[in-house]
Amino acid sequence: MKKVFARHESALLALLIVELIYFTIAGRRFASADNISNIVRHSVEIGLLALVMTPIILTGGIDLSVGSTLGLSAVIFGKLWRDAGLPPAIAGCGAIFAGGICGLLNGALITKLRLPPLIVTLGTFSLYRGLAEALTRGVDAFTNFPDSFLFLGSGGIGPLPTQAWILVAVAIGIWLIVHRTILGRSFRAIGFAPEGARYAGIPVERRLIFVYTLAGLIAGLAALTYSARLGTAKADAGFGYELLAITAVVLGGASIFGGVGSVHGTLLGVAALAVLNNGLTRVPAVMNIASELSGVLTGALLIVALSLGALPKQLAAWRARRQISGHSN
Amino acid sequence: MKKNFREFSVLAALLLLLALMAVFTPNFFDPQPLLSRMTAAAPRLILACGVALVIIARQIDISIGSLFAVCGTCAGLMAAAKLPLALAMFASLATGALAGVINGALVAGLGLPSIVVTLATMVTMRETLRLAQQGVFINLPPAAQWFSLPMRTGQFAICAIALAILVALSVVMRHVAVGRFIYAVGSDAEAARLAGIRPRIVTFGVFVLMGALAGLAAVLNMVQSPQVDPNTGRGMELEAIAAAVVGGVSVSGGRGKLWGVFVGLLLLVCIGPALTYAGVKPHWERAIQGVIIVLAVVAEGLRNRKVAGV
To answer: How much is the ipTM here?
Structure first.
């Protein structure tokens, strides 16, 4: 299993290097310090969501509502700050808390009612986005944030953009949880065999509630960096981000069936997507269609990564079947 | 009655809603606006029926909104090029079926989870369409309107086609072996295999049928307006899934009736105007739709718990 891991991640690293070389040659001013800091700045939200999606996918689950949670948290932040007159720091805590509640609701529905995560989060995907639209009457946008808050989105500390430090901190935290604690191992155990994990004494329900709540909290945090980066909080914040986060995790070598995956793989996946997305806007030939093209390529990349992941298993099954029929002849 | 409790309770909710509307806003039942509303809902009914079959087979397809837009654009371009409408219709169905083949091959052939596969095809199709069409509307020739029939007849024709699909699929699901196979595969694929059914072929077929139905729905939608909007269909997959789930189709597969889906869709279609009449602002519509989906899911969860005896 270790070997498969290493192979997958080196393939992804190779893809990333090819992207970097290609865009450095073909793109205009791609490899400038400004642009690199720009890439990092723009990948923080996707990175945060992908990081918390990793434990969820490890347990064999999925969360389609993270993008909507981000949108709802952004709107709640705006409401608390502008309409309730709270200072940004407290409003920010409120947004993170709201995200946590969203995640907790997902986790509670999934575990207490024993429903598939897919259908629960598909429902809350629509619910949270709908609430965000309702709270802003569909058109309202929160702007004119104070400079101290905007610093989070456009300032820098040391060599990195401000929000990148948050990503680094969360990445280290999640990496330690997933790869260095018993808690992290229990996610894999649940992903491999939920019943087996239960018999082994793992409190499966509590673990699942934990990963979904964590996803909600971090989505709330991502809502803050998103609003600070764009200088505006609207109901459509983070639309479609769930797909990018899932793509990054699957590209990073996690099995969508659970049990297999790594946090460093996810980070490589995020980097590959972010570089692709930014690089295309720097290549003169496709500059005008960069956003569409990067969408097509992201979707196609996800399909290819999934197929390559599943193909060996299918081939092995097919060979085994042929062998059995060969013996019986 | 007890067996189909879920369907009958949704039917009761619909009748109650209609009764309230009859008392408070009788003009809801004026024939012409009602017919227009039903015509507008006809493509949704077809999508909901298709996605109900997919869910009964224990899969999901969230690419149908994008597919709906791709098929509509395809048919629209052909109609705008003055090709016969029948040809445009065929092209739309074929495009849909082809996308269904891709989804089905990835799900049934490679054994990948349908949610991730259709999430990927959803975004790939949507972005490809954006790339090709750049958001430009297609102007349709007047001949394409209402199948070149007078408007009223055209509206009746569209409703009749949608209802015919509903009835045909209900009969197949209930009385034809293939329909029973879909239930069997959805409730237990391994048991179905041991009983001599080939689950992969059934799953594949359901996705292809879903694609073709999305193509048909796109044509029924296209003939209703003088333009084709390439951005159409966003969120339509959720509406269809909501109709199916509200109508009693079990998200864990193997259970559901198409007449329940029909009632579920009518409930969702009527609730928008009902809320408007009741003075609720339209920006709440999506949130209320979300609440309804979550409630339907919770209802199913509670039912499962009761069945499991926990």
So the answer is: 0.83
